[in-house]
Amino acid sequence: MVSKTDTAMTGKDGQNVPENIKVIFLVRHAKASLKDGLDDFSRPLCPKGRKQAEGVRDAIAQFQTEPQIVFCSPSVRTSETLDILLPALPVQTEVTFEEFLYLASDAQMLELLKSIGEETNRVMIIAHNPGLENLILALANANKSDNKSYKQVKEKFSPGAVAVMLFNGKWAELAKNSAELALAFRPKDVLGDE
Fold first, then answer.
1. Which backbone phi and psi does 87 adopt, to 5 degrees?
2. Which of 11, 60, 64, 136 has the most Cβ atoms closer than 10 angstroms to its Cβ?
3. Residue pair 158/144 in contact by the 8 Å Cβ criterion
4. H or E stretch including 151?
5. Which residue has the higher pLDDT, 3 or 132?
6. Residue 86 burial (C-beta neighbours within 10 Å; 0-12, 13-18, 19+)
7. Tell me, what's the pLDDT at 19?
8. How many CB atoms lie within 10 A of CB 8?
């Protein structure tokens, strides 16, 4: 289970993440229904996926650090995941749907992150695999990252999973091995085994 200590978003010294550190929340949509005649883009969350997203929402609500902007793929399953997460986010959080995030590559998401203005330090991307998993593994410096979280993402960034990355620098400088994977968790980590 993810504890309040895990979700407090503190640095390794136990202090809150300083305002000048960039915080990147990467969220994979929760479990979607089977195609059932729908095209991939139109697949909604299944009942288990809704429960997963609710568990993730409750964990995110405990974070002491919150995103200022959410970039979301416009697919039905990512939009529904966002709708469930929204109550855990500040009212003033800006939400932007980006067409290219539907099945985006890690390189495309990295370019999005590098284009963010310096007035913003905390962002969330809600998107799809394999792009998200590849992005996390590309950005994470294994020596600076939480070992358990790194191994978990490397094994599988499952539906509904969340990764929180920290970066000390300007967005334009974000590059391979430049960030710390501070925390990663799956829905089953907050809901218990299903």
1. -60, -20
2. 136
3. no
4. helix 147-155
5. 132
6. middle
7. 78
8. 15
Q: How many domains does the chain have?
A: 1
Q: In 10 A of CB 49, how many CB atoms?
A: 23
Torsions phi, psi for 81 (to 5 deg): -60, -45
Residues 163, 26: contact at Cβ < 8 Å?
Answer: yes
Q: Which amino acid is at 108?
A: Q
- CA–CA separation, 124 vs 72, rounded Å? 8
Beta-bridge mates of residue 45: 32
d(CA 4, CA 68) in angstroms, rounded, equals 21
Q: CATH number for the domain including 158?
A: 3.40.50.1240
Show the domain range for 125.
23-191
Q: Side chain identity at 67, as an amino acid letter?
A: P
Note whether residue 12 is domain-resident.
no
Per DSSP bridges, beta strands 180-185 and 162-167 are antiparallel
Confidence band (pLDDT; 50, 70, 90) for 194? low
State pTM to two decimals: 0.91
Please report whether residue 13 resides in a domain. Answer: no
In single-letter form, the type of residue at position 132 comes to L
Q: What is the pLDDT of residues 4-51, one digit of tens each?
A: 334 444 443 334 778 789 999 999 999 999 877 889 999 999 999 999
